[in-house]
Specification:
It is a single chain. The protein has eleven helices and ten strands. The protein is of the alpha/beta class and 258 residues long. A six-stranded mixed sheet has the order 1-2-3-5-7-10, with helices on both faces. Helix 4 crosses helix 5 and helix 9 packs antiparallel against helix 10. The longest helix has 20 residues. The relative contact order is 0.11.
């Protein structure tokens, strides 16, 4: 079904792997289309409870496909950027947790893809950067917006305007990455995190992701109202009854929607 991705579901986890190692997994129009299709499957498949996104070979995603972009005029370039935004925004809209397993270079569109995930676990060999200004453009898949929101406006401007590439440890220090692990521990660590989240109430995980994402850019009063609304559905659910009952009875909960 996919030519540029590997897609597998195992034990409730969907593994989405960009598979163009000969091109350092660069994002072209086909990859973007296939990513959208893959995440559409994720959203619709009730067997999928969490997602791990990674890249085949030495790179996570080393950027957008410059060879393809070089041939685009302004109208075609805009269409590609809109396609990229559609993918990243759709990923954020999915209620299931998405973990970026950053195994190598995450540059340009690759860094932007990682930032559209809920959090990023990086190999010690990972590298991050937004090199676009050195190519005569700016980040176009959400980098100018997501990066400052993650690392602060000043640091976001610095990384974008200097096009500096940073290692995994620096990425963790500034808040771009949540955890750095040895290369051989990357996927097992992401799987452990996914399974930890999957052990919680699905309705609560979905509500938490939605409320955090939607409320992040609101003023506190409006965001607090959003939290109240987000609280209501889980509070009225069987999962809430089971979770609190299990706590009081000192036993592991058995949530219905796993």
């Amino acid at each position: 079904m996919f030519e540029t991705l590997k897609y597998e579901v195992k034990d409730g986890i969907a593994y989405v792997t960009v598979n163009r190692p000969q091109a350092m997994n660069a994002l072209n129009m086909q990859v973007l289309d296939e990513l959208y299709t893959a995440f559409y499957q994720v959203a619709k498949d009730e067997a999928v409870k969490a997602v791990i996104v990674t890249g085949e070979g030495k790179a996570f995603v080393a950027g957008a496909d410059i060879a393809q972009m070089h041939q685009l005029d302004a109208i075609e370039g805009r269409a590609m950027m809109i396609k990229g935004h559609n993918v990243m925004n759709f990923m954020e809209s999915i209620e299931k947790p998405i973990i970026a397993a950053v195994n190598g270079f995450a540059l340009g569109g690759g860094c932007e893809l990682s930032m559209a995930c809920d959090f990023r676990i990086a190999s010690e060999k990972a590298k991050f950067g937004q090199p676009e200004v050195g190519l005569g453009i700016i980040p176009g898949f959400g980098g100018t917006q997501r990066l400052p929101r993650l690392v602060g406006k000043g640091m976001g401007k610095y990384l974008i305007m200097t096009a500096e590439m940073i290692d995994a440890q620096e990425a963790q220090r500034i808040g771009l990455v949540e955890k750095v692990v040895a290369p051989e521990e990357l996927i097992p660590t992401c799987e452990k995190i996914a399974k930890t989240i999957m052990s919680k109430a699905p309705i609560a995980i979905a509500a938490a992701k939605t409320v955090i994402n939607k409320g992040y850019d609101m003023d506190l009063t409006t965001a607090s109202t959003l939290e109240i609304e987000g609280f209501t559905a889980p509070f009225a659910s069987q999962d809430k009854t089971e979770g609190m009952g299990a706590f009081l009875e000192k036993r592991p909960p058995e949530f219905k929607n796993k």
